[in-house]
Amino acid sequence: MRKFAKHLPHYFSLFGLLLAGILGFAIFSYDRIFQIYTAVAVASAYIVWGAFHHALHKDLYLEVIIEYVVISSLGLIIVLSLILRV
């Protein structure tokens, strides 16, 4: 539990980042292009957040970056498939 509390400020920033992406989707629901840009920005910010978080805790390895890229890409594929559905 202590380890979780130590990382809590980082998780709040991640939650804020994801919340901003959700709000961007809701506010600009009429503009698919802006939603795509929002999805790409949130996916990219997630990767940057992960790299920054692990760099601060001195456990940043190539495998960690690859994991963040894969998870971000999967999420982006899901969101884009929902935006661009016919």
From TrEMBL:
Organism of derivation: Candidatus Woesebacteria bacterium RIFCSPLOWO2_01_FULL_39_21
Name under which the protein is recorded: Uncharacterized protein
Record key words, sorted: Membrane, Transmembrane, Transmembrane helix
Top-level taxon of the source organism: Bacteria
Transmembrane intervals: 12-30, 36-52, 64-84
